[in-house]
Queue: 3 jobs
Job 1
Amino acid sequence: MSETPTSATSAVSRRRLLGVAGAGALAVGAAGVGGYAYGHTEDDPGREGQATYPFAGRHQAGIVTPAQDRLHFASFDVTTESRDDLVLLLRAWTAAARAMTSGLPVGEGVATSYDAPPDDTGEALDLDASGLTLTFGFGPSLFERNGKPRFGLGGKQPKALRELPHFPADQLDPARSNGDLCVQACAHDPQVAVHAIRNLSRIGFGTVALRWAQLGFGRTSSTSTSQVTPRNLFGFKDGTANLKSEDRAGIADFVWVGEGDDAGADWLAGGSYLVARRINMQIETWDRTSLREQETLVGRDREQGAPLSGGTEFSEPDFELQGREGPLVAMDSHVRLAHPTQNGGVKMLRRGYNFTDGSNALGRLDAGLFFVAFVRDPDQHYIPMQTRLSGQDGLMEYLQHTGSGLFAVPPGVRTKTGFIGDTLFV
Ligand SMILES: C=CC1=C(C)c2cc3[nH]c(cc4nc(cc5[nH]c(cc1n2)c(C)c5CCC(=O)O)C(CCC(=O)O)=C4C)c(C)c3C=C
Ligand SMILES: [Fe+2]
């Protein structure tokens, strides 16, 4: 559905661009590809299936951008203690991100010395930008480790940027959790997303080390009303009641960090917080559960995604409506516990993906949902809801949270000389 590029100019492969423009003329050629130049529209999330989304802007791309179908998420640890080296890396990542999101190869592409490795690893050379967005975040450990400030960032750590607390039933694997930096790469084509993380990782050699990574397929949320609601691995429509980019007031209230939200971290204004949770789903047990039980646990019907209180997919659930055995939308159903009316009016922008990572020792699928959400304040807009769900949600019987991370997502790069995180480092 989202695989078809809608922009004729941007459906041009990197190889053709090199052929036409030549390596030395890349910057000129790039301006015509869309997105590489600074012609972005402030706050415009773009259309579903677009082949290029602008990299520069007031906010980073990949948040309100219509969720692409593929994900490669990576978390890195910084291996240097030099602030200058870290800033050099962020500058180099910015240049590479500008190029790759425009459908261009990294650096000089393949047209470098025969005696040296090419700047770009090459597997995306025949592909266009494929709607690639790269969204960067900073973990709490970038600011402080073992009680000591790092990189001169003492005093700049946002108050809400702490490791997420232990939630009931968490079974977190430290090797799949946290990290100093994160990059969310989303694209229509998985090879483009993987190419992006691989090249950023390669550029970072000697400065950062990959800590953990997650591939995702099949978005589990819509972030625009123009998108069809996808399904998760339980077979249910997921994303129906998600916060959508067309809800400008909702996005302003619940996604973007505002000026003055945190006086000690004004650099984060225009940014957001990214919550990542790797949630394993007991697929085999679910597949032996009756449809009645499945729908009761979710609070919606499987076919249409309509609330069990009646109506169609986008009808508002009626939590008061009683059936023969109690409320039609059960007290411990996922939808009731996650609904804004049960959470002090809180709405959330979810942007997760299905995943399968082979099978486990019991011969069961190691599969689930890589939950990603962007929130303005994790203390108000994520932690209370997760506490409620982890403790009371009937679905938890089928879920295991195995990975976790919280990252502050700086605002977008706004100037030609700007770089990711420049509001924090300059
Ligand atoms: C803490 C936040 C949430 C986690 C973690 C989470 C995991 C999770 N969700 C599903 C399946 C569905 N979730 C649905 C709705 C929904 N989920 C959350 C939050 C979390 N989900 C919210 C805020 C909502 C919207 C509630 C509302 O306003 O009605 C749905 C219904 C369809 C929809 O509205 O998106 C499904 C289905 C799974 C399987 C899962 C963990 C693996
Ligand atoms: Fe959910």
Job 2
Amino acid sequence: MLDDKSAKSHSFQVDLRGLVDLLSHHLYSSPRVYVRELLQNAVDAVTARRRIDPSAPTAIRIVVDQAGLRIDDPGIGLTEADVHRFLATIGRSSKRDDLEGARREFLGQFGIGLLACFTVAERIQVLTRSATDPEEPGVEWLAASDGTYSVRRLEPGERAEPGTTVRLTPRAGAGRWFAPDLVSGLARDFGSLLPYEVTVEADGRTTRTTDSPPVWDRAYSSAAARRSALMEYGERVLGFTALDVIEFDVELAGVRGAAYVLPQAANPAGSGRHRVYLKGMLLSDVTTGLLPDWAFFVRCVIDTDTLRPTASREGLYEDETLAAVREALGVRVRDWLTGLAAQEPGRLAAFLSVHSLGVKALARHDKDLFRIMLPYLAFETTDGRVTLAEFARKHPVVRVTSTVEEFRQIATIASAQGIGVVNGGYTYESELVSLLPEVVPGVTVEELGTDVVTAALDPVEGAAELAMAGFLATARSTLDPLGCDVILRAFFPASVSALHLDTREARNERTREETAAEADDLWAEILGALKSAEPRAQLVLNHRSPVVRRLAAIRDPALLVSAVEALYGQALLMTHRPLRPVDTALLNRAFDELLGWASQNVTELAEEDGQA
Ligand SMILES: Nc1ncnc2c1ncn2[C@@H]1O[C@H](COP(=O)(O)OP(=O)(O)OP(=O)(O)O)[C@@H](O)[C@H]1O
């Protein structure tokens, strides 16, 4: 109430139509939630009555007929005063005024749920009788969607038992929300885990829509029977056969339920949609934020009494409790994983064949897990696909490339020289390799540079190099304009005639040079200032290769240039990197020349044959 004596105080007016419009278009995702709100009120009313009379009946009935929908509950009911206070006052809830401890028992808290019914109904009739005082007469509250309502005392015989009946008269155009199958489907979807029996009656048939206690709260004859019941339940509600099921019983966090391991690899970005029930009432089947991001390989079905809903009741309210629950569930998933590693390597292997990416993502932040998973996580290496643990045993200095193409470029050569290299180019892998020294003592990790490879290749004796001096000089002058130096080494396998070694820095430098050449003066000057002294690419010719030795014997200078270009092109193709336009042009030219030379030779031979 305002204090200022000179001012007149007024009460807010509520435009009910506007409010309902707001709720239906901006708060609730669909009018279907009206069934949830009715069920919720009925359940809360039964819970409230059971607090004062533990033997009170609990069954909730929904009846669908020509007139619309009716829901009966044997709950706490309302006195006439309650009707004015709670039903007719938007935003007031009997459940919030209660003690904190009691509030935890109720589903509702906002005092707006009943309004959801106006998204489908033009009239709401509530017939109620309070269980708190047998002397209190029954009351009828009749509300219309234009915002008017009336209250009438019932005659003594009109309602003998405590409890409430809510009747909805459909709005024009909203008839489909009252179709019997839809109503029982919604009651089952939202309320299958509610603690009290709910039935839907329509067309002379009665369907029970509750299926409680939840599958995880039932007694089983054995652990195997429990597991198969949980698996079957997951398949029914989530629609897939899980690789495994991880049961949650996190008492502190007030969470019961299970996580189901997806049978296919999941996209980490589009994951984390879980089916969450709050005290048995479905919140949503696409709830996010329940598990840590890394746990994208599971979908959960849980029931909790600690988490709070947002006002739309379609998501979880982000608070400290949710953060604590997320952490507790994350620990549980992690424990399952480590337990699998310790006891069931076969199942772990099956899991990793689908979800190794998720585990790698997780291991980056969790050294214990990384240590546990080390013997199981396979990486692409110069020793083939092996685990890091196995690889580190053979190569105490673990060399890692930062891109897939760098690995391709040097893997064969490095392994032929006895250098062990891990391909760190895939998601999370170089990060994990760099953590290796922290979990495996004595191991060091080094980025693999081209210098490591060249240093491992045998130098060629002076005399042998001198014998090839002419060939090398032609090779250097041919490739210099392409930003590539030429050196001669002896290495295995002899089948590789030349190796193109390149670093990212060298590639960047080449791009800069090319851009500078094409740019106008100002740009050329700016780009010129950026010129770096980074190493250039290298073509390493293999002295052990018979092809190289034969080519070195060519005397025709033009043919020698083409041969060098062909060697360069072949080495470049081995790197699997996209070719620059200059390189493609060079390759075409070299092969044209060589073909021309070969066909000319064939013609000369044929002529010689003809003369003979
Ligand atoms: N079936 C019922 N039996 C007894 N009281 C009821 C019933 N339905 C509604 N009420 C009373 O009406 C009040 C308002 O109900 P409403 O559904 O609008 O909000 P709420 O359930 O309190 O909160 P929420 O908006 O979170 O659902 C309730 O707090 C309760 O006191």
Job 3
Amino acid sequence: MTETQEPPEPARPDGSRSAVRSLLRLWPYVRPVRGRLVTAAAVTIVASCAGLAIPLALKWIVDGPVAGGDPSGVWLGGGLVLLLGLLEASLFAARRFLTARPLARVEADMRADLYRHLQRLPVAFHDRWASGQLLSRSTTDLTLLRIFFAFPLTFLLVNGATIVAGFVVLLIQQWVLGLVLLAPVVPLVILCAYFEDRYSRAARTAQDQSGDLATVLEESVLGIRIIKGFGRHRGQEKAFAALAGRLRGTELRKAHLLGLLWAFIMSLPELAIGAALVLGVLQVADGELSAGTLVAFLSTALALRWPVESMGFLIAISNEAATAADRYFEVMDTPAPRQEDASSRDEDAPSRKTPPKTPAKTPHKASRERTGLRLEGVGFRYPDAPADAPPVLEGVDLHIRPGETMALVGTTGSGKTTLTALIPRLHEATSGRITLDGRDIAAMPRERLRELVSVAFEDPTLFSASVGENVLMGADGGGEAELRRALEVAQAGFVHSLPEGTRTQVGEQGLSLSGGQRQRLALARAVVGDPRFLILDDPLSALDVHTEALVEAALREVLAGTTALVVAHRPSTVMLADRVALLSGGRIAAVGTHHELLHTSREYALLMAGDEDRDGPADAPYARHEGGRR
Ligand SMILES: Nc1ncnc2c1ncn2[C@@H]1O[C@H](COP(=O)(O)OP(=O)(O)OP(=O)(O)O)[C@@H](O)[C@H]1O
């Protein structure tokens, strides 16, 4: 067996990391659209240059036509300024056009990759991560990244280039005044570094808290019946309000930091412009500077205000995007289980994709290779179990013969569900091996394994899809005939009286159906592909006595043609089985027919009597449960 992969704790770093390094990891996604992004950046630079040329045109108007009293020159200059303005506006519009579609593609690709990866990650990962955290990473965080690609990424470059070009122009026009304007750069760089660190910590906290909020919201929506049933809505409201209050506090801290940064970014350059204006006016008065040059100088300085001021929020959004990238890659970096070599595929085995029209009675008994389902020395411990806790399963040996139905019984928490989860490899056994018809499942491609093994769990989850789609999930390519047969076996005839029959959409998690109805659909899903191996975890628990008897009768027919392990809590479910295995203390304590175990295992007899604490030998009183298939 492969070693169980320890999924990482959902990380909550403090944000002290390199934002640039985090953002650089996005390169593989940006690569395919780099041409568009570079073109958009070039277009934006041309647009900014058009904007910067306007003050130069003004200088020409003031020093030329205005000073020389030439009205036609003023009109010409005015027309030139108008043209430059129109050019700037249309180029900015073109930038949006160039980036919108490819960036939506990048966001969609990243989301699809995340979803694909989440589907491949082991159940142990999902046990540990809160669903809201995954939800917020695949929605809010990816939207933040798209905004970053569309806006700050381009404008950090373009505005940076504009500022450099603008200062070159200023220094050429009047280097003393230019140096006055450059004076705030040093304190601003120091302040930006100071705020960046604090802001990224706050951004990380806010994004994690919004994930926590999504988790509480999701749990409240899914558990609304319990909340209402126990009158817990006030408690839930308080818990939600407390979390929302914490998030509000963090957002306020972010706003406070951003406000302070912005105040410095706006006021320091304004002070410098004021100083340059006073100095410039004195120079014009002394005749050392032309009025036109001063107008051009100040217009250029004012044109640089937006690129300088925008740096504050561009840095803020970039930090949030870097945090979003970290959160995205925390999930993507979690290794998914290794995909086994597809060449080990069992070619002779019939696929569930093409189920036979009618089940063969005992198709697997005749084959010499078909040795059934075997567990040899299987052990399992949950990755997050305390180090000193004993393993849930240890040295489990069990052989289910081809075509045989084995019931698995044991006290609550004895590990029955855990054991059934090892067969379709929802969890990896930590020791020992499991074979299906002699082939080790650890060496089998998961896809193939899941074609061979079908499962129905105690909690019958249905998806937001039609009844038919939910059932046919169990058999890719299955059609109407398979659907009808599976519904018949599961005694799910009620679907035909639903408004649109098997096309009726069942709500989120099938909430519009009763527990028993959902369980019957989950059972139909398990049997629809006529699987070679069937794992049923207490499949009849939510059925009334009458329906249970009907389902049992139909299920007997299916079980006759498959090798099955059925977790049973009730004698009526045990009756479906050929033999029974008793799970106790993490091991198989006894195997035999129901009749044999009633007489040989006191623990089994007590379990079947529904009285686990009872003393005294198991004998005649339990004989009323006898009468299984053998
Ligand atoms: N995801 C998990 N992480 C850690 N421990 C777990 C996890 N799931 C189950 N356990 C523990 O493993 C043990 C076996 O649980 P399991 O659900 O397999 O028992 P069970 O026999 O199916 O119980 P029941 O009859 O009540 O359904 C229990 O002690 C349980 O607390």
